[in-house]
Amino acid sequence: MTVTWMILGAAVLTGFLGGVHCAGMCGGIVTALVGQSAGNIRPWLMHLAYNAGRIASYALAGAAVGAIGSLGLLLDEWLPVQIFVYVAANLLLIALGLYLAGMRSPITRLEHLGAGLWQRVQPLTRRFLPADSAPKALALGMLWGWLPCGLVYTVLFTALLSGSALKGVILMLAFGLGTLPNLMAAAVLLQRSRSLLTGRIARICSGAIVMAFGAYGLAHAIYLGGQIRGGLLCIV
Predict the structure, then answer these.
(1) Mean pLDDT (whole number) for 157-163
(2) Residue 40, domain member (yes or no)
(3) Using CB atoms within 10 A as the burial measure, which of 42, 60, 69, 217 is most buried?
(4) Is 142 inside a domain boundary?
(5) pLDDT class of 236 with cuts at 50, 70, 90
(6) Residue 222 exposed, middle or buried by CB count within 10 Å (0-12, 13-18, 19+)
(7) How many domains does the chain have?
(8) Does residue 138 register a pLDDT over 80?
(9) What torsion, rounded to 10 degrees, do the Cα atoms 147, 207, 192, 29 define?
(10) Does residue 167 fall inside a structural domain?
(11) How far apart are CA 77 and CA 74, in angstroms?
């Protein structure tokens, strides 16, 4: 499946609008980095290093699922599977929108799938605490990027359709960059920005927009077969 600029834009916006979720998931570690910054290191550099590590992990995961998708999703005889995954990805976007809006959603169950991996990764984070240097913050961010997160998993499901490791990386980088403004803002404004981002109105508006992405994708599912055969869903 081709990843168009519209799909990349949707990934960026999903990451940005998911800031209400990121503030809750990563707000604690972001706040802690401020107090652990060494006197000769500016706090913004620490947060930039942490987020660079986090986004690098997203890109690595995107490469993995994109490579898996390339094993068979580009074959014509796998077209029904491609359509099924496409529909499932957009249904997940709708579920994610409900989740961001604070409503009941199956996304919470999706997060449980990564619990086993996180149990193995989490003990490694202690080696880089306190994160009092940029390299430690970078390493901590790379580990923290594997925290079970329905937001990340939803975009990864879309990356599965990209059909190559490179496209999976590009898609997840776009998503990761979308999450960056909110977490950097949380680093500067701390609890004040966190309370604004997690407010009810912000959650509902963000969830509604993400659900609109999913609804738009489902509305165009009937044209998917021709688009895949015509190569209209790839990065060019």
Answers:
(1) 81
(2) yes
(3) 69
(4) yes
(5) very low
(6) exposed
(7) 1
(8) yes
(9) 0
(10) yes
(11) 9
pLDDT at site 102: 72
Q: What is the pTM of this model?
A: 0.76
Cα–Cα nearest to 99, from 214, 187, 219 = 214
Asked if 171 contacts 11 with a C-beta cutoff of 8 angstroms, the reply is: yes
CA dihedral 140, 145, 150, 151 (to 10 degrees): 110
Q: What is the mean pLDDT of the chain?
A: 75
pLDDT over 70 for what percent of the chain?
68
Higher pLDDT residue, 219 or 21? 219
Q: What is the signed CA dihedral for 11, 16, 19, 22, rounded to 10 degrees?
A: 40
Domain region containing 214: 5-229
Contact criterion met (CB below 8 Å) for 21 and 178? no
Give the separation between CA 35 and CA 132, rounded to whole angstroms.
9
DSSP 188-217: HHTHHHHHHHTSHHHHHHHHHHHHHHHHHH
Residue 54: is it exposed, middle or buried by C-beta count within 10 angstroms (0-12/13-18/19+)?
buried
**pLDDT of amino acid 184:** 75
Residues 111, 104: Cα–Cα separation, whole Å: 14
Asked if pLDDT for residue 233 goes beyond 50, the answer is no
